[in-house]
Amino acid sequence: MKIEVVGPGCGRCITTEKNVREALKQLGINAEVTKVTNVAEFAKKGVMFTPGVIVDGQVKFSGKIPTVDEIKEILAPQ
Q1: Has 10 been annotated as catalytic?
Q2: Mean pLDDT of the chain
Q3: 27, CA 20 to 30 Å: which among 55, 62, 67, 76?
């Protein structure tokens, strides 16, 4: 699983990354977490508002700080 946290590095983006990492920890999932801070890449990836979270190429959150529980909902195996 590849998770991208999209944003310029602001406080909201840092909180989003922390929440992603905590959700992964709670679920016991190993995933590659990367940051996308290049503004030109945001739109290419489909994120118009930051922070954004992309999981395996699909935008899951954009323009809000997702909670740990919200992230767990999209990451938990069905």
Answers
A1: yes
A2: 95
A3: 62
